[in-house]
Amino acid sequence: MEMRSAEFKKRSVFALHDGALQQAMGMLREGFVAKRTQQATELPEFEQLREEAKNLKNHILDHLDHYLERYEAAVTAAGGQVHWARDAAEAREIILGICRRVNARTVTKGKSMVSEEIGLNEALIDNGMEVVETDLGEYIIQLADEPPSHIIAPAVHKTKDQVSDLFETAHGGPRKTTVPDLVNEARHVLREKYFKADVGITGGNYLIAETGSSVIVTNEGNGDLTQILARVHIVTSGIERVVPRLEDVTLFLRLLARSATGQETESYTTLATGPRRPEDLDGPDEYHVVLVDNGRSKMLGGRFREMLRCIRCGACMNHCPVYGSIGGHAYGWVYPGPMGSVLTPLIKGLDNTYDLPNACTLNGRCASVCPVKIPLPDLLRELRHLQHQQRITPARQRHALKLWRLAATRPGLYHFGERIAARVLAFAGRRKGHLSTLPLAGAWTHDRDLPTPTGPTFLEQWRKQRGQA
Predict the structure, then answer these.
(1) Smallest Cα–Cα separation from 354: which of 327, 326, 386?
(2) What pTM was computed for the model?
(3) Most buried pick, 21, 158, 213, 330, via CB within 10 A?
(4) DSSP characters for 394-456?
(5) Residue 1: pLDDT band by 50, 70, 90 thresholds?
(6) Strands of the sheet with 286-292, listed across from one edge
(7) Which is nearest to 139 in space by CA: 91, 92, 176, 188?
(8) Total Cβ atoms within 10 A of residue 425
């Protein structure tokens, strides 16, 4: 996937004026957010589970090498093979090598954000393979030739009418207009692809060190068919997704669906352990796991370590007012919203992603709903600090911050300037009671008016009330 994060401002403006997108995002805000609140309220131990999940993730990260080695040993004992990929290019080559060796022509895929991260689809297609996304949302955006706009609901930016148009163009026949009819049409088209596939590729929500199993959670069952019916099953996953025991998965499952879509649980939770054994009725002949680093080890040893706790639920973007206004495509890469505004600069570099950390309002909603309590606003502030240190921040902004620091660290000077500013603004807006334009803040006043101060500053009123004037 081509990275276009440098176009964030232009793409955001376009998104704000896209009527269909705004309609779709309105449905997102009304759906996932309300359902998550209800689920959290109905589960008394929800906050305790969040704390336990945070602590368990921290423990895993403290001993990540140990659990990864245990996982590899367990996969090998079960007849599978683990491949280690340092970056996206190496991950693509490993998967292409497997596909070429088995002479793969058709590849089915369950939803996998890591496969998006490494640009897998493009590589497979360029090498002459037919790639079929089997998750309904992923299938829709594949027909539209678009990247996902949400990590759990890839086609959330599409309205029902737009999906109807896509299916009519791709499949022919009478145009379907109801959700059940559209779903059944997709099932009918995809069913033959499962039996035709040579290789099935899925993600891995969790990798169990104790048993060597990979776990996927879906609401459609497409992941099960993808990994069972193909001759070869390949799991793509980040190295941070390992957990110590099977029992530990249950903790994260109690949080994942509630945080993601507001469901009590997912429709399907599926474990895969190695290739088909002689007594098995179905399953793949080969089982491979591609563990992707791609900058994660660097995060593990640095100040952004907490980001590796992420379980990819999407709660942060569901509750983010910025994401809720512009959708996911404006962010320009695989991971949108607050979590993407941290991950994308860390994986792709600060230079080409300048606007992402700076687009956040730092309202804190993302941190308040994160099931593993990642302090996303703190990490975004840290990225801004790094940009300033590396002089990526525009010179004009750096100079403005120096002036701000000069005043903010001198209370007397700050409050004097505050009193002067309040009186100047009150005088400028004395006739209308508001300001329609303001020097150095034209972008802010372009869509709103600034109410003028009506009296002394808060501190002056406070001191007067306390008898300290």
Answers:
(1) 386
(2) 0.90
(3) 330
(4) -HHHHHHHHHHHHHHT-HHHHHHHHHHHHHHHHHHTTTTSEES--TT-HHHHTSS-EEPP-SS
(5) confident
(6) 81-85, 286-292, 232-238, 199-202, 106-109, 130-133
(7) 188
(8) 16
pLDDT digits (tens, 9 = 90+) for 96-152: 999 999 999 999 999 999 999 999 999 999 999 999 999 999 999 999 999 999 999
SS3 (DSSP) at 218: strand
Report the run of H or E that residue 162 belongs to, with start and end.
helix 160-171
Amino acid at 222: N
Q: Decide: residue 231, CB within 10 A, 0-12 exposed, 13-18 middle, 19+ buried.
A: middle
pLDDT average, residue stretch 74-80: 98
* Longest CA–CA separation in the chain, Å: 88
- Look at residue 232 and give its three-state secondary structure: strand
Long-range contact set of residues 64-70: C-beta below 8 Å, sequence gap at least 24 = 64/239, 64/240, 64/242, 64/300, 67/209, 67/242, 67/243, 67/244, 68/209, 68/239, 68/242, 68/291, 70/209, 70/210, 70/244
| Phi/psi-derived region of residue 56, left when phi > 0, alpha when psi is between -120 and 50, beta in every other case | alpha
In residues, how long is the chain? 469
422: amino acid identity, one letter: A
pLDDT in tens, 156-214: 999 899 999 999 999 988 899 999 999 999 999 999 999 999 999 999 999 999 999 99
Model confidence pLDDT, tens digit, residues 356-410: 999 999 999 999 999 999 999 999 999 999 999 999 988 888 888 888 899 899 9
